[in-house]
Design brief:
- There is one protein chain.
- By secondary structure, this protein is an alpha+beta fold.
- Helices cover about 35% and strands about 15% of the residues.
- The protein contains five helices and five strands.
- The radius of gyration is 46 Å and the shape is rod-shaped.
């Protein structure tokens, strides 16, 4: 069969019947499938834009989340490594007190208490005592600090991984520096 014969079917007379040569053959109309109902596209352009924005926001949130996790992990690592001076200041809520200063990358803390003089501003004794307790200062060192007089000059004490030096004058208050040895 030819292509034209495939697309059009002709009606032929049954065998034994005569056909008039002049009579035209009737061809059946080609059968075309019924048109499918028009279906909307799977996603509208608005939905695609919203999806793209969602993917973008998801990526940004993922990156920011990863950075936060890394930051927290780094912070936990420094806690595990130990920064007891900064931890003591944070626990006692004196990080912003200008009279209590963590220095040397967390390896020292300097504290100045208030004195009895009019111009002898400083941290209150409760804040200093809190820091000393957080650093596990032994009673023997605390007793020596409490009993220091102006005539005694600069005093020193050591415990565990700490060394402290302090001086006291009633007008100026207590001046104490606690250090960890350099590695």
């Amino acid at each position: 069969m030819t292509t034209q014969e495939n697309s059009t079917a002709s009606i032929e007379a049954p065998a034994g019947s005569t056909t008039d040569a002049a009579a035209p053959t009737v061809a059946a109309a080609p059968s075309t499938p019924a048109p499918l109902p028009a279906s909307p596209p799977a996603f509208s352009s608005r939905e695609i834009r919203i999806g793209a924005v969602g993917v973008g926001l998801g990526l940004v949130a993922g990156v920011v989340g990863s950075l936060l996790v890394a930051s927290v992990a780094g912070g936990l690592g420094s806690i595990a490594m130990g920064n007891p001076m900064a931890d003591a200041a944070a626990t006692c809520e004196v990080e912003t007190n200008p009279w209590i200063t963590v220095g040397d990358e967390g390896r020292s803390i300097s504290m100045q208490s208030e004195g009895e003089g009019e111009e002898a501003a400083g941290a209150n004794f409760e804040d200093l005592a809190c820091v000393l307790l957080e650093l596990d200062t032994p009673d023997s060192v605390i007793n020596r600090i409490d009993s220091t007089r102006a005539l005694d000059g600069r005093q020193t004490g050591t415990w565990e991984d700490y060394s402290a030096s302090w001086g006291y004058h009633p007008d100026n208050g207590l001046d104490i520096v606690i250090e960890m040895p350099a590695d």
